Automatic annotation (TrEMBL):
It comes from Thrips palmi (Melon thrips). Residues 234-443 form the Guanylate kinase-like domain. This is MAGUK p55 subfamily member 6 isoform X3. Belongs to the MAGUK family. Residues 9-63 form the PDZ domain.
Length: 458
């Protein structure tokens, strides 16, 4: 029951087409309630409307539905006057999922910070209650989450941006969308202006899966909780990329440039030691049974089998480099990045060495071959002008271009698949320039604050 003595008028002015920064819902009694107030929005800054307030009129016109509210606000342009009844305790409880936002306005700290691991454009989201109050972000952006109570839509502010809070899809909603999990309830109800919800009672949908491991296997990471740290040196540097893109060359150049700062590991193998090989120089040679036993005991960082022999890198060998006060440089498989990333012990900085375009790749390929003999030599006994020579040259060129094209395609695929673990991407168009960029990025880590996974700190 609304007490007429408590009814008040609330006036505000806005720029043309400026969003008000609120959403509404209809309660069981047919009242139009303020359901959500966005942090940093026009209404939040003025502080004249509150979660749970009942909106009765807009500029003297009664509004009893989201559609009527939408129409009157559109006509109002710059000047708007609301007739409202104050929030009742039961109204606030009806909208309890938005209480965190009210606490934020009163000085309560943010819920958390999240690094986005996908791109989001609210204008393309068919589920978003109101596209105008959605928050666009790119992969890698850090988002300040100010409200997580709604199981489908979080309120967030993009760090480094002075705009108001906006709506982003929650972890649960985006998991269902990207994993194509059939929903057991609708996510947006019936929508009106700026997220108005006409459903009488909100059903909170819990994250459900037959096995959480199913998501883990799919590597479905959408947001990662992070915290801001003062400048510090990472313990490992992981160089990843497609085969032949130049990772090993870059790793060796880094180590040779400063042996006191950089180090690397010597891999283990079950392959028999050859007469000219020294144990512990290029490989540590051990028997297959020992390696298999250590693999079962989770002592290897990564391992694989080639021509019947096991090759691998132990975790202890990485620790030894770190304990010597050096950054351990690894040219590891992208599949091993998860082990590094989830460990506060190794604190990696991951640089993806991307393959350039075909023409640049051909130049790098020829540079890397150096003085090595060609499969086909123009100065060979076969006359270059002969048909057979031209055929051999064409075959050679075709095979080389197929290999290079395969490298480009593999590089793009790896970058998309493991993007969530990558800190920096360098297109290797020039060996010297790539080296300078890597050194520059590592120096930046020692002079600027960093956003790192919370499990590295807590």
């Amino acid at each position: 029951m609304i007490n007429n003595e408590e009814i008040r008028l609330v006036g505000l002015r806005r720029n043309p087409n400026e969003p008000l920064g609120m959403t509404v819902q209809v309660d069981d009694n047919g009242n139009l309630l303020v359901a959500r107030i966005l942090t940093g929005g026009l209404i939040a800054e003025q502080g004249t409307l509150h979660v749970g307030d009942v909106i009765l009129e807009v500029n003297g016109y009664p509004v009893g539905s989201p559609e009527m509210l939408q129409e009157r606000i559109a006509y109002s342009k710059e000047s708007i006057t609301f007739k409202v009844a104050p929030a009742k305790e039961d109204n606030i409880q009806e909208s309890h999922e938005y209480a965190t936002n009210v606490a934020k306005q009163n000085g309560v700290k943010s819920v958390c910070y999240m690094r986005a691991l996908f791109n989001y454009n609210p204008m393309e989201d068919t589920l978003l209650p109101c596209k105008e109050i959605g928050l666009e972000f790119q992969h890698g952006d850090v988002l300040e989450i100010v409200n997580q109570n709604d199981p489908n839509w979080w309120q967030a502010i993009r760090v480094g941006w002075n705009g108001p809070a906006g709506l982003i899809p929650s972890q649960e909603l985006e998991e269902r969308r990207k994993a194509f999990v059939a929903p057991d309830a609708d996510y947006v109800h019936k929508i009106g202006i700026c997220g108005t919800r006409i459903s009488k009672k909100k059903k909170k949908i819990k994250y459900q899966s037959k096995a959480n491991n199913d998501y883990d296997k799919a590597e479905l990471m959408l947001y990662e909780e992070v915290t801001r740290m003062p400048p510090f040196k990472r313990r490992t540097l992981a160089l990843v990329g497609s085969q032949g893109v130049g990772r090993r060359t870059l790793k060796n150049r880094l180590i040779n440039s400063n042996v006191d700062k950089f180090g690397t590991v010597i891999p283990y193998t079950s392959r028999p030691q050859r007469d000219y090989e020294d144990n512990g120089k290029c490989y540590w040679f051990v028997d297959r049974e020992t390696m298999e036993n250590d693999i079962r005991n989770h002592k290897f960082f990564e391992y694989g089998e080639h021509k019947g022999h096991i090759y691998g890198t132990t975790l202890d060998s990485i620790r030894e480099v770190i304990n010597d006060g050096k950054m351990c440089v690894l040219d590891c498989s992208p599949a091993a990045l998860k082990v590094l990333h989830n460990s506060s012990e190794f604190m990696p900085y991951v640089i993806f060495i991307a393959a350039p375009g075909m023409e640049q790749l051909k130049t790098l390929h020829n540079y890397g071959r150096g003085s090595r003999s060609m499969m086909f030599d123009r100065q060979s006994s076969i006359r270059f002008s002969s048909q057979r020579a031209r055929t051999l040259q064409s075959l050679q060129t075709m095979f080389e271009e197929e290999d290079l094209l395969r490298m480009v395609e593999e590089s793009a695929c790896l970058q998309r698949t493991y993007e969530k673990y990558i800190d920096y991407v360098i297109v290797n168009e020039d060996h010297d320039e790539t080296f300078r960029k890597v050194v520059q990025q590592l120096e930046t880590l020692s002079s600027e604050h960093q956003w790192v996974p919370v499990n590295w700190v807590y």
